[in-house]
Model the fold of this input.
Amino acid sequence: MIALEQVTKQYRHRRGEVVGLDSVDLRIDRGEFIALVGPSGSGKSTLLLVLGTMMSPTSGRVVVGDTSVYDLSVARRTQLRRAKIGFVFQTFNLIPYLTALQNVQLPLALAGVAVSEQVSRASELLERVGLAERMDHKPSELSIGQQQRVALARTLANDPEIILADEPTGNLDPDTRTQILQFFQEFNQEGKTVVIVTHDPAVAEMAHRSVRIVDGRIAHPGIAGQESAAYVA
Amino acid sequence: MRIYDIVMREILERKSQMMMSFIAIFLGITAVIAIKNISYFSEKAVERELDTLGANVLILPKSVTLQDYYSADLHDEVIPEEYVLRLTMSDVEGVDNLSPKLCVPVELSDRNFTLTGILPKSEFSAKSAWAGAGIFGRPLGCGVVEGLEEKPEDKKTLVRKRVIETLEADETLIGADVAATTGIGEGDSLELLGQPFKVIAVLPETGTVDDSRVFAHLHTVQELSGQGEVVNAIEVVGCCKQIAAGLVDDINTLLPDAKVVTVTQIAKAQLTINEMLRKVSLAFIGIIVVVGGASIANYMYSNVSERRREIGTMMALGATPSQVLWMLLFKAALLGIVGGLTGYATGTLLAVNLGPQFAGVPVLPMPMLLGWALGLSLLVALAASYFPARRAANLDPCICLQEV
Done:
């Protein structure tokens, strides 16, 4: 379970303060598939970063399981993120000088996992996303869709409970997009909590509920089982 | 894959950027090592050269006032020869050579000259070797470098140095004026105080009272003059560093009834030249620290700026700030180690090959400078990288992930 309690995030700007999130209350249950929707600049990405323990709120609490994450030290918060949270980025953010296999190994290496275990786990995940033949290829040698599949495999490396994705299909062609969405659905069916920031009605349709954000506030918290696509901007 | 594998791959990916920084530190260390190496051997050469100028410490009877260095022994006061033995057997550091002297007037071809008794070095070396200790138990003198062959010196240069290695009881050396005015030459025989001597060398002209001297074995002169075991002065060749470190005080403590005088011009010249060489070396070290450090800091700052997104991604994937800091400092340390090693090798090669041509001194490799080169390059690389690395470690990962 993830809970945001009265979370407010204000940014300092030359012309004053900008409100990214304004007194947001949100509860995400274990195993949910949530689509965060809303117009550009509404605060979706800020919400994703706050959920991902990467941006401390100006006020309010973020609770993951039983832990108030922003009360932890930076090092403990990093450990928690490493153990429980996986990120998928719109532009994949693969490390350009590492091969596909090494990119998937990266979270494991940072966690201090033994090299043999890293290789076996990373190979298994790349096989799962259909890239068994591309393990030794660098990102520049892979297609856009293949790069996003490597990024998905990397997200799963530490077997996170929560997957946070920012526009993961934004740069993909329709066929690849379908393939990637199927993976998200699979991950969710395996019990992982999935939160996706999206403008894509198809993604919202796939989600259990869509949370609509406007001007840093939750305009509609979504209702489980309700047609999610209706809330996409 | 370990974290250092990631660092190595990043270095190989961005070779050209790293190369500029490497070249800066490599050239800096090369220059410093070459200069330190050449200046070390130049310093030694200067010490050897100044050593030949003669004694820089004089031990005289208390009542004698020093008027002229070259005539310091021309007076009637005496001190016991036993002082030489005391010095020889002592553990006073920095005494490179000793030359006790006793002067008596002699007549030769109806002209008056000074017969100066000198003690060959072989005699006190033998005494200290017999005692198993003492100042000549140590093999090295001022500016002597192991591995560099010293030219064998003849008796003429040894007298100029105020010390002679061997001298038999019936042998004598004569000054240039003595030879010119009496017509006596090398290999001739002469009679002094009623005893026959063989002239083994005519000394080159010095322009000092030494030109009017006849040198013979100290013990022979003592016996012929009937003065007993005494000397007028003991000339000491002291290493300049030890003079500065209190050699004179040490001798004063050892010989409280004698007057110990420093020939300040010679000691000062040695110290001034050595100080100058040290300052040149320090100036170059300063330049390498500033130029090499600035280059590495610049490289690291631009590397961190360029990799903000990559570093942010790693943080999002679980890299702690200390891991990020470690990765960048490890890279800096590699730069320092490789720069230090290659700089040492190239600097040593340059010094050994170019030193004799530019400085006119033979130069040998100095393995001790390897640790010095590595230490300096590591220190510069790590210090210059610390702030960029800390900046990277404190990056806000969300700023790095621009699309989020």
